[in-house]
Write a structure and sequence with these properties.
- The protein has six helices and four strands.
- It is mostly helical.
- The strands form two sheets. A two-stranded antiparallel ribbon has the order 1-2. A two-stranded antiparallel sheet has the order 3-4.
- Helix 2 runs antiparallel to helix 6.
- It is elongated.
- About 10% of the residues are buried.
Length: about 170
């Protein structure tokens, strides 16, 4: 006695559409699009100086501003420092990249100090040294995306699924 049986569908149009849908689902196009959506949203957060929840980043401390002025000098007679919050050199933002894997997509920064912006830092006594200025996740410990990022990905997925059998 056999445990399974096979049904062969002899419908050229249905087989064609199923083959196209399977190819769309197995390709890396969708994952590339997810990465592009997240990169775009992260760049908007850089511009707006907000985290994935839409909360404004805390300003730099006066000590940090003084250090930056000492390191960078001034760009005008009023003592204004170069760049903006998190963008003195532009290196971290420029390191934002997407890596598409067979069944996943990675979006992140290659600069090692980017992790401290995502998590914030504390002193040995537990006091906040650098506040969290997140770009990637709403909650770095759980890896949870912000609701707007999640919704944008779900909309992309729905659009992609809606077009599978066109």
């Amino acid at each position: 006695m056999k445990d399974r049986f096979t049904i062969v569908v002899d419908d050229a149009e249905l087989n064609y559409k199923l083959s196209r849908a399977a190819a769309k689902l197995s390709g890396d196009t969708l994952l590339s699009q997810v990465g592009a959506v997240l990169e775009r949203r992260i760049n908007i957060r850089f511009d707006r100086k907000v985290d994935p929840n839409g909360t404004s980043w805390k300003a730099l401390s006066q000590n940090t501003v003084a250090l930056y002025l000492k390191q960078d000098g001034v760009i005008d007679g009023k003592g204004k420092r170069r760049g903006t919050l998190l963008e003195r050199t532009g290196l971290m933002r420029a390191s934002l990249a997407t890596n598409v894997l067979p069944n996943a997509v990675e979006v992140g920064f290659s600069m090692p100090y980017a992790q401290y912006h995502e998590t914030g830092t504390k002193t040995k006594k537990g006091a906040v040294r650098m506040p969290r200025r997140a770009l990637l996740t709403a909650d770095w410990e759980s890896g949870r995306l912000g609701n707007a990022d999640r919704d944008a990905i779900l909309q992309l997925l729905q659009k992609h699924l809606d077009g599978l059998f066109d």
